[in-house]
Write a structure and sequence with these properties.
The protein is α/β, with parallel strands linked by helices and 197 residues long. 32% of the residues lie in helices and 21% in strands. It contains six helices and seven strands, in the order E-E-H-H-E-E-E-H-E-E-H-H-H. The strands form three sheets. It has a three-stranded mixed beta sheet with strand order 4-5-6, covered by helices on one side. The termini are far apart. 19% of the residues are buried. The N terminus is likely disordered.
């Protein structure tokens, strides 16, 4: 739980940064307001970054594009301090399968300390890094199988009544409808069609 300078509870703040400096300076400000502004160099060296993720992803797929298994090994660079590193590593592990039915999974997610700037929680909270890997691999799989990347996603996408990897029953899943609507809106054509044969 985090609190602002007036002792009020603050939500969504992963780690105080400038606030600590402002409190220290306020001691010498004789009741006047204190403002802390980072230079561009300080922004890049003294504030948090998004956690770097080193990821190995292996996916079992039948010839028709049906997923059979996924194995993921993720190492998260937490930097010099913990901040929200453990939470990011956990959330990233839960979302590395993407929005796709995968009956067999083996996941390993580790957060490690390094001598870099500390990693913090941003929008996406670990999902941004693993989603990039997951969706990039989806395109690679589609190309190697000669399947439309859209069709590969539709074939494996979660739907109502499916269970997520943590056992949660999925309801009101609009992924397939969203993919179809978006593909029509952009005039999607299969980029792998010309590579067949």
């Amino acid at each position: 739980m985090y609190f602002d300078l007036l002792g009020r509870r603050v939500r969504g703040q992963g780690h105080p940064r400038r606030e600590v400096i402002a409190v220290a300076l306020a001691k010498f400000a004789s009741g006047r307001p204190v403002k802390v502004v980072y230079s561009r160099e300080e922004e890049l060296t003294a504030s948090q970054t998004r956690h770097a993720a080193f990821l190995r992803l292996k996916t079992g797929v039948r010839r028709d594009g049906t997923f059979t298994a996924r194995q993921a090994d993720i190492v998260w660079d937490k930097g010099a301090y913990a901040s929200k590193g453990i939470d990011v590593a956990y959330r990233g592990m839960l979302t590395v399968v993407g929005p796709y039915r995968t009956p067999n999974i083996e996941l390993l997610s580790r957060a490690v300390y390094t001598n870099k700037e500390y990693g913090g929680a941003y929008r996406g909270f670990g999902t941004t890094q693993v989603t990039w890997a997951c969706e990039s691999q989806m395109d690679i799989i589609a190309e190697r199988l000669g399947i439309d990347p859209l069709e590969l996603r539709l074939k494996n996408a979660y739907g109502d009544g499916d269970r997520y990897i943590n056992g949660q029953l999925m309801t009101r899943v609009g992924l397939k409808e969203t993919l179809r609507t978006a593909s029509r809106a952009i005039g999607w054509t299969n980029p792998n069609r010309s590579r067949k044969g």
